[in-house]
Amino acid sequence: MEGLDSRQCAEFKRFVSNEFDMVLGMLERRMARASEPVSSLRVAAREVLDAAEAPNALHASINLLARRFGELFVATTNFDRLHEEAARPGKVESYGLEGLPRPSGGPSFHGVFHIHGILDPKQSRQLVLTDQDFGDLYLRRRLTADFIYDAARIFHLVIVGYSVNDPPFRYLMNAVAGDSLHFPDLKDRYVFAPQAAGDLTVGEDWSARSILPICYDKANYHAELARLLKAWAASIPPTGEDRWARQRLRRMCRGARSEASEADVALFGYLFRRALRTEQSALARFLGEIGAEPGWLDELVKVIREPRRAS
Q1: Of 234, 251, 270, which closes a domain?
Q2: Is 277 in contact with 303 (CB distance < 8 Å)?
Q3: DSSP letter assigned to residue 188
Q4: Is residue 36 assigned to a domain?
Q5: What does the pLDDT look like over 20-61, one tens digit per residue?
Q6: pLDDT, position 162
Q7: Any long-range contacts for 149-154 (C-beta under 8 Å, 24+ apart)?
Q8: Can you tell me whether residue 152 is helix, strand or coil?
Q9: Do 154 and 95 fall within a single domain?
Q10: What is the span of the domain harbouring residue 117?
């Protein structure tokens, strides 16, 4: 680090430690000019962020999976509007920091919730970039924290694209886990956790925070995650279309339930648990039509008798 002064050395140290919020905060404070209504760092950051590319296959898969009552529900720390673009031609509500509603289990609660700000000139221009921004948002005003606390009691949260070492996210999830001591209705939380081949510590780190990890190999720029989400999204049927489910049920139910793999039993339960009552009835009739082995009918009765839960 020859040639750097003490402040620049400190910034470099934070940078190589991936503490980017602190790096940006140190840069903003060092470059601040009283005459600037908006810091030059934030102007430059918006120019970079405005250059976001088109939505990709991950956006499309997440948008299919993250639907309630037919409407999209995604909470994201991304500033771009790529989830909204991926949902076209349909109209999707967008919410920035100042307009975050309180979570609700009803059908009126839907949209894309940008919990760190949004690149939209019609909404608040505040973006959460620096360490001071995080302190203000999570500790002082608690906008994002309260949003996530409430959502965790109503929905089964599925986390995509976060590291267990992201400081604000880590403390937030620890606080949510602590809520389980006070609120028995707290829902399970899941995370798609990237790990290097053979590394078993990542899953343990997430489990220690009361989050159920779904680990995958992060090689080739997380290609396995893209394949996994695409395959899962393919299981989400269009309204009135259950061809995908029928194909899987026909294959599984040829054999005895007692000899089925754990994966097939789990898939069987998933197909019926996700279905509406009318869809369950149609699939149940289908089992009779294909002559499903009686053990699968017993499994169906067990699944249907489970209490229905909000998700």
Answers
A1: 234
A2: no
A3: P
A4: yes
A5: 889 999 999 988 887 777 888 888 888 888 887 889 999 999
A6: 83
A7: 149/175, 149/176, 149/179, 150/102, 150/103, 151/75, 151/103, 152/176, 152/179, 152/186, 152/187, 152/189, 153/179, 153/183, 153/185, 153/186, 153/187, 154/103, 154/104, 154/105, 154/187, 154/310
A8: helix
A9: yes
A10: 57-234
* R_g (Cα) of the chain, nearest Å: 23
Q: What is the pTM of this model?
A: 0.83
Q: Domain tally for the chain?
A: 3
One domain for residues 96 and 10: no
220 confidence band (pLDDT: 50, 70, 90): very high
- Do both 211 and 64 map to the same domain? yes
Helices (H) and strands (E) in the chain, counts: 14, 7
- Are residues 219 and 125 located together in one domain of the fold? yes
Number of Cβ atoms within 10 Å of the Cβ of 107: 10
Q: What is the pLDDT of residues 93-150, one digit of tens each?
A: 999 988 899 999 888 999 999 999 998 877 667 899 999 998 888 888 888 888 988 9
As a whole number of angstroms, the distance between CA 273 and CA 308 comes to: 8
Q: Is residue 311 part of a domain?
A: no
Distance CA 207, CA 199 (A): 14
Other Cβ atoms closer than 10 A to 247: 10
Listed range (4-13, 151-160, 163-172, 267-276) with the worst mean pLDDT: 163-172
Let me know whether 45 and 61 are in one domain: no
Q: Report the 10 Å Cβ neighbour count for 46.
A: 16
Burial class from Cβ neighbours inside 10 Å (0-12, 13-18, 19+) for residue 54 reads exposed
Residues 169 and 63 in one domain: yes
